[in-house]
Amino acid sequence: MDHPMRAYGPNVYEIVLSDYLAGLGAALVAVTIAAAIWPATVLPDATLGGGVLAGLTAGAGLLLTLAGAGVRQNAAALDVGIGLLGGAALAWLVWGAIEGGLLPILVGAALAVLLALVLGLRRRSIRARFKPRFLTPRQFQTMVAVADTMIDGDGREAIAAIEVAINTDHLLADVKSPTTSEIRTVLILLEWVLPILILRPLPFSSLGSFNRRRAVERVIGAKGLFRDIARSLKVLSCAGYYGDQRSMRSVGYRPFDERARGAVDQTPAEYPDPFLSPVRTP
């Protein structure tokens, strides 16, 4: 039986990134073990600072290994792992500069290069998967999370959250207005600042659906900057969802060229509320 191909299935960059993260994570853990076995060789001195440095490296390795098991599903592990990898690279470089050791500097430089490869592959994988026109890859991920949070039809949505984000991205690319630059700022604040309100210091797009909704509920009805964020989320989601022909048809809208000519039937149409209709059991 033939099945249609997935529209947004894994691409080459995503597959390479997954394998690369698995290998990189194992290598970082191996470096940490080597530092513990031969501290005089790998580390200038086995002090508290050396222990913290080794802990950063091991933590980055474990989280990146977990992210390699599913770069989409384990987005939080990937984000934290990337942060720890950057911190480990900086720590190795600083350690080598202070203590005058060449090996720590080489390790830090190598980790910095590996970090750049991770970021580059992740960016390429998102671009190859969705081909955003206006939003950056990170902002597009944020928009997908926004659509998934705001368009909650209990599985009855006419289109998926990814398609809502694509519609919104294409709409913003076609609109020539000074306010479009403000939308980028809103998405940045949403991604990095809003989760702090619910004590979740992770990117908005890495949170689960329940915590994303909690974060949005905190700003609905708020004043000032966060009120503008809540309005922007609603406008962006509705524009991407109801601007699609499939969503229009799901609420009974018929394009003008498909309507019968002559007298217009103005009888109000009635549509049953799906949440009040009886649940069908097989």
Textual characterization of the structure:
- By secondary structure, this protein is mainly alpha-helical.
- It has 2 domains: about 10-130; about 135-255, no CATH class.
- It is about 65% helix and about 0% strand.
- The chain is built from 11 helices and no strands.
- Helix 6 crosses helix 7.
- It is elongated, with a radius of gyration of 24 Å.
- The mean pLDDT is about 80.
In short:
The chain has eleven helices and no strands.
Which short descriptors sum up this protein?
282 residues, 0% strand
List the helices and strands and how they pair.
Layout: H1 12-37, H2 39-42, H3 48-68, H4 75-99, H5 102-130, H6 137-150, H7 161-174, H8 180-192, H9 209-219, H10 225-242, H11 245-250
Overall structural domain count: 2
Strand content: under 5%
Amino-to-carboxy terminus distance: 25 Å
Number of helices: 11
- Label the overall shape: elongated
List the uncertain runs: none
- Please outline the major beta sheet: none
What does the average pLDDT come to? 82
Order of helices and strands: HHHHHHHHHHH
Name the structural class. Answer: mainly alpha
Number of strands: 0
Radius of gyration: 24 Å
Helix content: 55-70%
